[in-house]
């Protein structure tokens, strides 16, 4: 079952790129005591993700943070190497690019999709959320193939 508004972000371990390579980071480290915007995409370097979703958050990062947001987090069922390269390619210096390589976080959120028909395997649904101290206050999950409610602009309206 998918998480809902009012639920806590599930405990999971993710990966980010550190100075010496991939390093683990817990959801508690990301969310505890902070206001966080997280958006999830089916895959780094895929068309809608690269041409619209990530750029929207890059362009609007200052506006989002001006609303009291401590961190903007992008995640996908990709490893830390891919997420780091995608972040560099997309000029996402103000975002935290987080790999969920095994899909553990995505499954814990209940927001996994099967992209096997497209050669993608198990991936994350496209969504965006706002969490305050680890509690979900806004959750915008896209219908299959859509890109409307999880955009940076939609999140700005919710802040």
Your description of this structure?
- The chain has helices at 27-31, 47-59, 61-65, 80-89, 104-109, 152-158, and strands spanning 13-18, 21-26, 35-40, 71-76, 96-99, 112-114, 122-124, 127-132, 135-141.
- The chain has 159 residues and is an alpha/beta fold.
- It has a 5-stranded mixed sheet with strand order 5-4-3-8-9. A two-stranded antiparallel sheet has the order 1-2. A two-stranded antiparallel sheet has the order 6-7.
- β6 and β7 form a beta hairpin.
- The longest helix is centred in the middle third of the chain and has 13 residues, at 47-59.
- The chain starts with 12 loop residues before the first strand and ends with a helix.
- The mean pLDDT is 95.
Helices and strands in order:
Blueprint: E1 13-18, E2 21-26, H1 27-31, E3 35-40, H2 47-59, H3 61-65, E4 71-76, H4 80-89, E5 96-99, H5 104-109, E6 112-114, E7 122-124, E8 127-132, E9 135-141, H6 152-158
Parallel strand pairs: 3-4, 4-5
Antiparallel strand pairs: 1-2, 3-8, 6-7, 8-9
Quick check: average pLDDT?
Answer: 95
Strand content: 25-35%
The total count of strands amounts to 9
Structural class: alpha/beta
Which terms summarize this structure?
159 residues, 5-stranded mixed beta sheet, globular, single chain
